[in-house]
Design a protein that fits this description.
The protein is an alpha/beta fold. The chain is built from 13 helices and nine strands. The structure holds adenosine-5'-diphosphate (ADP) and magnesium ion.
Length: 305
Amino acid sequence: MYCFNDILGVSDEINKVKAIGMMACQTSSPVFIYGETGTGKEMMAQAIHCKSIRYKKPFVAQNCSAIPENLLESTFFGVSKGSFTGAVEAEGIFEAVQGGTLYLDELNSMDISFQGKLLRVIQEGELRRLGENKIRKVDVRIIASVSEDPEILIKTNRLRKDLYYRLNVIRIDIPALDERKEDIPLLVNSFISKHNLKLQANIDGITEEALKAIMKKTYDGNVRELEHLIEGAIILKQKGIIDSCDLNIKENLNTSLKCRLEIMEKKYIKEALIICDYNVSRASVFLDIPRQTLQYKMKKHKIML
Ligand SMILES: Nc1ncnc2c1ncn2[C@@H]1O[C@H](COP(=O)(O)OP(=O)(O)O)[C@@H](O)[C@H]1O
Ligand SMILES: [Mg+2]
């Protein structure tokens, strides 16, 4: 389990995030975490649990996309014997977590109608196992996470507004690594120590040039991607100092503002097209630009339908 000391960084952004996380330890109110993949959402959830009064009780992380729609109710709320042919008595995740913290990862991939049932259980603090009338009290702290903008998730009906408002009591937005590059040197050094130990390697450090190349790169996979980059270099090198040629960096991205804006524009247009079922007219309304402009931009970015 991770604690707050494991969440490394020197940037104001990460310190702000940690400060909010620490305040969340003093209550059992729900926490809503928003951050791209690999930004440390699950680390944060674990750190909050470990520093809260619930630390001796279970912490369970459940990825919401991993449960098929028809099993959501029995998985979360449990089943009573004979509720359907062959059903055996089983408690659900909520009962298993009793008194502890349930981390609902990728909440937005949970079936929208089940989100309504989840809201009811959270609000009332009680549930009924599938096929049973008995009401059972559950005391579970919820920490939920999403990796896409909550506003867009609500607008596109992938996140229930009422559930969002219930969970958004303490909101933690973890910025992308590209927005806090000053955290990189510290992270790199800690990953070198960590993987030296794990891989029984003898890496002494990293050259200035290699660190420069690392700082220059962009990270769609955030801290997780950076960690894998270092781990890969250690596996190949085993001992000595990591040089830029030891790094598996293919792209050498320009750091100019114009270049970055172009990347963001392409990403956002793609998102809009997905949201609008690849209908260009609707996407242009969504983006509030003329249809021709969108078509021009799609051509420029080589976005094909
Ligand atoms: N601030 C950080 N300091 C140290 N390691 C980090 C940090 N953020 C992320 N990591 C590393 O990246 C990995 C992925 O983090 P995780 O919490 O699983 O991200 P997410 O849940 O947002 O995808 C962690 O296991 C950890 O090794
Ligand atoms: Mg995760």
